[in-house]
Write a structure and sequence with these properties.
The chain is an alpha+beta fold and about 180 residues long. It has four helices and eight strands; from the N terminus they run H-E-E-E-E-H-E-E-E-H-E-H. A five-stranded mixed β-barrel has the order 1-2-3-6-5. Strands 4-8 form a two-stranded antiparallel sheet. The longest helix is centred in the N-terminal third of the chain and has 31 residues. The chain is globular.
Length: about 180
């Protein structure tokens, strides 16, 4: 029984280390002033910031502004669902990056809401495209675009990046969600 406990501790340590490395890698370019993601919209309308109050998983969250809460689904990406390879890591990365942080919600999908009545938005934090970053670090795949009848403004940049990235779970294809 002791060996299983050791395995769980090792997995926990590796997961925490991976999230910490990803966080520093994601935050460091902002601190030294590197350019924004090529997928970030330079012509996006300026809106008041929303605060992320809860992360469901790597591609959906709750935001709040002026006492109004909205469920948001990030446009153009898909992350593993609970129980799938990489789900915990994608959720932890989202929590570390987004929870409690001000974000800008940028429209860009054909529809305003999905079938679960969630807002469909790009999520930007300090001018960086969160969806693009999740793909860049292997936590998400480019999905829900013109290939699936859901075109969006940044799909070319997302798909190009997705083709170059080594994903956390190479077998993840988003088919479950």
């Amino acid at each position: 029984m002791r060996s299983m406990s050791t395995v769980y501790r090792a997995l926990l340590i590796v997961s925490i280390a991976a999230v910490m490395i990803w966080g520093w890698t994601y935050l460091l370019p902002r601190l030294v002033g590197d350019e924004a993601d090529p997928a970030a919209s330079t012509s996006a309308p300026v809106t008041d910031a929303w605060t992320v109050t809860h992360v469901y998983d790597g591609d959906s969250m709750v935001v709040e502004r002026d006492g109004v809460e909205e469920d948001v689904r990030v446009i153009g990406i898909d992350t593993p669902e609970r129980g799938e390879c990489g789900a915990d890591e994608a959720r932890e990365a989202a929590q570390v990056t987004l929870e409690g942080q001000p974000v800008t919600l940028v429209p860009g999908a054909q529809d305003d809401r999905d079938t679960h009545d969630r807002l469909l938005r790009y999520v930007e934090i300090d001018g960086e495209d969160y969806g693009y970053e999740m793909i860049a670090y292997g936590f998400a795949i480019a999905r829900y675009d013109s290939r699936t009848g859901m075109p969006h403004d940044r799909e070319d940049a997302y798909r190009e990046l997705d083709a170059e990235v080594e994903h956390l779970c190479p077998d993840f294809d988003g088919a479950a969600g």
